[in-house]
Amino acid sequence: MRPILLLTLLLLIGCGKPAATPVGRTVTDEVGQSVTIPTAPQRIVSLAPSVTEMLFSLGLGDRLVGVTTYCDFPEAAQSIPKVGSLQGFSLETVVGMKPDLVIATTEGNSAAEIARLRDLGLSVYTTAPRTFAGILTSLDHLGAALGVEARAKVLTDSLRRRIATVTASRDTTARRPRLLIVVSHDPLYAATVGTFPADIAQLAGARVVPERSPVTYPQLDREGVIAIRPEVLLVPVGSTNPLDQRTRASLLGLGSGLPTRLQLVTVPADPLLRPGPRAVAALETLAAALDSLRRSP
Q: 265 falls in which pLDDT band (50, 70, 90)?
């Protein structure tokens, strides 16, 4: 970090942070770091859309003083001041907001930038919801860390009941279609087994391909797609990744070298790709879509 920038940040902390920040308790976050969290923190900065959604779902949205540019759900999050993007937030802006707690995530935030915030004396709690089950675990952990354990339990119990309803209604004897999750289509990146979108698809009744890869979100060309022989393409669709007719035709054209006709299923992008509470809605939507495919001639 440049000396002038470091000096500026230190001055911001020294001059701007409340002198009487209440001392709370020390907890261990999801990456093993000890974090001192004030009792009922009132000025929270969220560094990820998934974190913002978690905090609102826990009834803590009114404590947010800063979020990222992609924190657009719920609607109330859109009016909260922005600190920058998921992978490129402004240290000066975060410090200038005088937070008594910053919440980050391993699913998108830079470990180096998180470390810089800690080096500057800020309390930073990091979540690590790397799997679908990990999303619910993160909600429980956040609830405990922020003093709303009972509220978190009501929420996660409700989400677990919805998951159980999906899995109980699924025909376990039905063949599981080979499904490729198209995280982005130009170029084509896929989600492999071990990611939370893949966990969702498997719970919904699919067999996710590729099953093995050196990276969790590999880039695939046409030959790579044909080699893993998908039967269904799962395409997340949203404002930042729309699916027009040309793109749809291009994706379906990947199946021209496959033995069976390639099917295409779309789901809302954010619930599937953000490790937040709406992931359960993505599970419900996908399970219904796969069930419909099985019934179609």
A: very high
